[in-house]
Each structure stands twice: as C-alpha cells, then as structure tokens.
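Lab meeting, item 3. Inverse folding demo.
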C-alpha cells in the first residue's frame, strides 16, 4: 500500500489552526496526533496541563490523559488476545466465569432497579459483550444525565473484601440476575459490557487486568499505560476542566463524582473507563493495529490478522445499527468486536471503514485504513459531550484531511 503524509502547506495550516484554538479560551488545552503505517507524521497541541496555573507544563504528545471509554478498545483487544490463544471463543457463555450471568433478566425500566422483569431467553456470550449487544446498560439517572454511574464511582467497591462481589451487588440490587435491556444479540446499548470483558480476562488468565494488558499489549509496544495513576504518570497528567451552566470553563473541583484515582486505593480494574495514558502511547497501539490491518510488516503482532479484521467488520443487527447511530447522532454506524465503524464516508473527514471511539472527558481516536492514517485527540473537559469540544474535533478533523498530501510508496524493512 502507499503511505499518506502531510503536505508542507497542509502542516502549516494545521499548525496555525491549532495555535489559534489553544489560545482562544473556548476549550481547555488539547493535543492532536496523527500516524501513518510508518510512524508519526504530526503531533501538535498546547494549553496548560493544570487550568489557570501558569507554572504547569504545556500539553504535548507525552502529556497523560484519563482516557475513560477509550479503555474499552483495550479491554476488547485483551479478550481478542485470549481468543487468539484458544482460551476463549466468541460463543463462550459469560456465565461460565461470572455467576450473575447464569440467570440474566430483561427489565422493563433502565432508570431504576425497582422494575418488573422476565428471564432472558438467550445466553449472554463473549461476542455480545464485544459488540455491545449484550443488553447491559448504564442506568439513566434523571437528575444527572452527564454523570458517571455508581458502579464506577462507589468507594464501597474498592473498600470491600471482595470488590467484584460488591460491584455486582450494586448492579443487581434486588434482581435475581444481571439486568439487561433486551434479549442478547438483538440490539445495541452502551453500558457495562467492556467492564465484563475485563473481569473475564482476569478469570480466564489468572492475572489482573493491569498485569495482562502490560504483558500482552503495553510492554510489547512500549506503552507506559496503566490502570494506576502512578506518580510518574501523575507528573504529566492533564487535569480536568469543568464547563459550568453559564458555559464558562473553570477548574475541576469534583463537580461530578469520578472513579477512584488514588492508586493505593484501586482494587477493581474497569475495562470500560479506567486507563491513563499519553496520546503518543495510545497512537502506538493504533498504528500497530493499522499495520496489521494493511499487511505492513510488523514483528510480534499483538493479534492475528484475521482477528484484527473483526475490529473493522460490522456485527450488529439492523436495529442495533440504528440504535448506535442514534446514540452517536451520526448515520450509518455499526459496531465491530472493539469499535464503532463508519459504513459510509463522512464528508471531508474520515472514510468508510474507519473504526473509532472516544472517552467521557473528550478524548477520541480513529483508524482509517482507506486513507492509511490513525488519529488521537486529547482533551480533558466535563461534563461529557461538551459542545465546544465536539465542534473543535469536527473542525480539526476536516483540517487534517485537507492537509493530507498524495501518498507515496512506503519504506519497507
């Protein structure tokens, strides 16, 4: 395949765009990183790591972000690795390892555990977790639409003698089995599926999720990524900003309850939200996946080629695709075994076949095999779906695609 690069004029225009928007104050500081199959072709950003603290470092490629739901792709890759190793299959019943899935129930309300229900008729499998067709949902709290669910924020979980049992106690409440919105495999809903993938990794491998990901993903790719906010990572951490009801940005002061950040207290690893990493390190993984997908020579691939292909292959029903498209507010979306997938071009932006996702605090990534690039965008602002950040991401992506130069032949080893 040919290799995509930036033109000199395109890079200059992108530099100017980013410089303007890191200074205009509409969003906190941010960073953009881009890679082709050979390596990084762009990294630029700016702004303060700690809002309103002029002594704090400028945000750059090595700044650390709490990536929230960008963790989900990595939890999926960990399970796909176990499938490659023959220790799991897509059809493995989740109840073989996690007891609350032996008798799941389909509930009539997703906003409360005080609900009528009926036994699920379909066994929840590993594939249902991978493509979010399990029926597992994040409960909707009427007065806190943008907050994180208590399954992530409860201090009781980490303080319990058995953190996983305490977690399931919160999720189940008075119900006899894990609550689902619909029969597994019939639809899409965003929820706890990725966390269950992480718990499966631990049950099957005998390692905790941190250990498994380090051994099979992070260390092979040279990523200093962790479920622990270690002192080394905290030195480079970009702190959250908060947009208040007036639309103004202010310093983070726990306006919304978050996950436990103190590494000495973390006793349960969340495959749906719990990782800290730099955008440069996350881009290493995206580039590696892009290389495998496009048959670029790599040594020690983390996944088999046929497994990587599943990360770009639609797997939802038509109803599931409609639900996902409604959730993201973009047409023609699907979900693979790890990521959302575009089934059509986005004008002036990513191409059909792009696999992507983002995080609660505004980070985002995609892999566009048709164009031959992977992208990361790092920012830290709450509440989630910040309008100014969403507008900026759409604009910066269009600027990036306008900056691309005609591809050239790669320098293969």
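The presenter then showed the designed sequence:
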């Amino acid at each position: 395949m040919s290799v995509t690069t930036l033109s000199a004029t395109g890079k200059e225009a992108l530099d100017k765009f980013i410089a303007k928007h890191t200074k205009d104050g509409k969003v906190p500081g941010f960073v953009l990183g881009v890679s082709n199959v050979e390596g990084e072709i762009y990294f630029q950003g700016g702004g303060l790591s700690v809002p309103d603290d002029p002594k704090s470092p400028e945000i750059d490629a090595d700044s650390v972000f709490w990536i929230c739901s960008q963790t989900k792709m990595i939890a999926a890759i960990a399970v796909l690795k176990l499938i490659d190793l023959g220790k799991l299959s897509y059809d493995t019943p989740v109840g073989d390892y996690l007891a609350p899935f032996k008798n799941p129930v389909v509930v009539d309300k997703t906003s409360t555990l005080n609900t009528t229900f009926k036994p699920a008729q379909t066994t929840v499998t590993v594939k249902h977790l991978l493509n979010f067709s399990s029926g597992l949902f994040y409960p909707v709290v009427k007065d806190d639409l943008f907050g994180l669910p208590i399954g992530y924020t409860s201090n009781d979980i980490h303080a319990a003698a058995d953190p996983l049992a305490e977690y399931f106690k919160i999720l189940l409440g008075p119900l006899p089995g894990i609550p689902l919105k619909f029969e597994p495999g019939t639809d899409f809903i965003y929820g706890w599926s990725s966390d269950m993938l992480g718990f499966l990794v631990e049950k099957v491998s005998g390692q905790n999720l941190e250990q498994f990901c380090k051994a099979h993903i992070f260390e092979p790719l040279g990523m200093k990524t962790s479920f622990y906010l270690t002192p080394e990572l905290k030195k480079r951490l970009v702190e959250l900003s908060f947009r208040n009801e007036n639309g103004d940005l202010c310093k983070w002061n726990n306006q919304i309850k978050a996950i436990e950040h103190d590494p000495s207290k973390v006793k349960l690893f969340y495959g749906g939200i719990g990782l800290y990493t730099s955008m440069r390190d996350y881009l290493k993984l995206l580039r590696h996946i892009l290389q495998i997908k496009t048959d670029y020579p790599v040594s020690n691939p983390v996944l088999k080629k046929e497994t990587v292909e599943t990360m770009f292959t639609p797997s939802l029903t038509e109803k599931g695709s409609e639900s996902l498209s409604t959730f993201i507010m973009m047409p023609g979306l699907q979900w693979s075994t790890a990521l959302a997938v575009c089934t059509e071009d986005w004008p002036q932006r990513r191409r059909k076949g792009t696999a992507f996702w983002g995080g609660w605090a505004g980070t985002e990534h995609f892999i566009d095999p048709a164009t031959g690039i992977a992208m990361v965008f790092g920012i830290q602002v709450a509440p989630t779906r910040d309008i100014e950040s969403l507008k900026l991401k759409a604009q910066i992506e269009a600027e990036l695609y306008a900056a691309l130069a005609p591809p050239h032949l790669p320098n293969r080893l």
